[in-house]
Amino acid sequence: MKKNLFFVAALFAGSVTFAQTTEVKDNNDMVVTPQAGDWAIGFNANPLINYVGNMFNGSTGNTFNSAFINSTGSAANAIYGKYFIDANTALRGSFRLRTASGTSNVLTDTNTINSNPAYITDEFKASGGAVVLGFGIEKRRGHNRLQGYYGGEALITLGGTTPNLTNTYEVALDSASIADGYVNNGRVLTSKAGSSFGVGARGFIGAEYFFAPKISISAEYGWGVSFSRTSGGETVTDNWGIDGTATEPSNFQVTTETGKSSSFNLDTDNLGGAIRLMFHF
Q1: Is the model's pTM score more than 0.90?
Q2: What is the spatial distance between Cα 170 and Cα 118, in angstroms, rounded to a whole number?
Q3: Cys-Cys crosslink for 205: which of 19, 146, 150, 242, Cβ 3.0 to 4.6 Å?
Q4: Number of domains in the chain
Q5: Structural domain that includes position 133
Q6: Where are the alpha helices (DSSP H) in the chain?
Q7: Integer angstrom CA distances of residue 236 from 81, 174, 224, 258
């Protein structure tokens, strides 16, 4: 029994020792590395790296072959931050709330007699949105300005990148308007994308270098699992012709449904390295 207790205690002590950092101060006695109670926010460092490269060689086409963390799908551009419980442990989270809508008007000149335009207006609207929530825990160790970190996090996404469409046409669909070339038979009235839901979990490991007090640059790799599901959508079209068993042509609508879809992935991520510029305060 005593041997078992000693073994467990040794494992615990080893894990505490593994997750350890050294407080670093600069020549002005300012603390460089994170402390308990610090908050941090992160930004994609690629634009800054590209700008510096362009400044030195006079080019505008420099690129840095790395990806910002979670830079695909709805998770792209999520706000990223940390809260340090102590110098060796941080809670990390990400959040994104996206909503977008737009309207465009298309003008068609129906005057074929002279140069005075006679426009008809068709209106096209698109809308969509997405929510991203992420939460994780991070452990750190290292000496001086260079620190390594590791941990795990979970991610939930709602919504997606496919917009919903609503189209309004000034000219009614009939045989005359089709013959005049002002309308297209089978034109889309509405298109609704299926709602999307995704969950994922990943482990990560990275390194962070503090080149100034509380300012750092970091690189990260991860490996994880994700599952996503999209429900069925539908598209309504405006048509002219014989509907079903009718004997005379008329205007009618057709609703076409899209199938459900799902995906499962288990893979490494950010193989090019996730580059972040971090500010602690």
Answers
A1: no
A2: 13
A3: 150
A4: 1
A5: 2-280
A6: 2-18, 46-57, 175-180
A7: 43, 17, 39, 11
